[in-house]
Amino acid sequence: MQAEADGSNPDRNSRPLPVAIDLWGGYAPRGVLQLAGCLAPLRSDITCASLIGLLLTLPGDCRVSKLLYIESSPRKARSKSIKVANAFVENYKATHPGDEVVTIDLWKMTLPEFDGYTIDAKYQVMHGQGHDAEQAAAWKTVVDVIEEFKSADKYLFSLPMWNFGIPYKLKHYIDVIAQPGQTFSFSPETGYSGLVTGKPVAVVYARGGAYGSDQTKGMDFQMTYMQLLLGFIGFTEIQSVVVEPTLASAEDVAKTEAAAVEQAEQLAASF
What we know:
- This protein has two domains: 60 residues, no CATH class; 204 residues, Flavodoxin domain (Rossmann fold), CATH 3.40.50.
- The chain is α/β, with parallel strands linked by helices.
- It starts with a helix and ends with a helix.
- Helix 4 packs parallel to helix 9.
- Helix content is 39%, strand content 15%.
- The strands form two sheets. A five-stranded parallel sheet has the order 2-1-3-6-7, sandwiched between helices. A two-stranded antiparallel sheet has the order 4-5.
- This is FMN dependent NADH:quinone oxidoreductase.
- Its cofactor is FMN.
- Homodimer.
- Its EC number is 1.6.5.-, 1.7.1.17.
């Protein structure tokens, strides 16, 4: 009996494994619903080994994904970018009922400062050198933020335009996560390479003016910066939803918002 309990029984993986799941008898963990649907056609005498093999080859719509939503406007209920992003999130939840959605409100998040030991720790990494105790402690606060970011499978950003660029809270977050050996690498032979790969990202932009004309597009350091930065750390599938201009008549703004919400909902459904 002890051999079976500690997993050393050689016949354990060939024994039948019940696959019935009682969804009404208690709390169903995240992902159980779609997993149960994927396993429903199986016979009740499936073995452990067969189940493991099946789980490794489940189609994409049977796997649980994590969407990380990063919110950067302090205006909350009055924010156009948040309103459109919320429409994205709600339709994403409706069309991906088993997935996890995690929101980071940058105005409620305490980010590590890049001073003293932290910046020294970064340069130690860049030069391939180790950290002393103070540098190691400082660098851990940076890596913790990066690990949370990299743990996601999909990403959503929402941001207003501030002074033709992005809010300083978002810039601070980016300055923390864009680190050598974590989200990008460098070698003399190949140059820079992004390390956050194979993951989609959607970005909702709001701006008071319109920046699509030849006269104004050179003033847009909001979308151009985000696309550059996201591409630099490895993203290739970048989708954009733009709400502009928000400084217009109430009727025009309502039409602009409605069009952006519709676009965001459609994007979320296939994301």
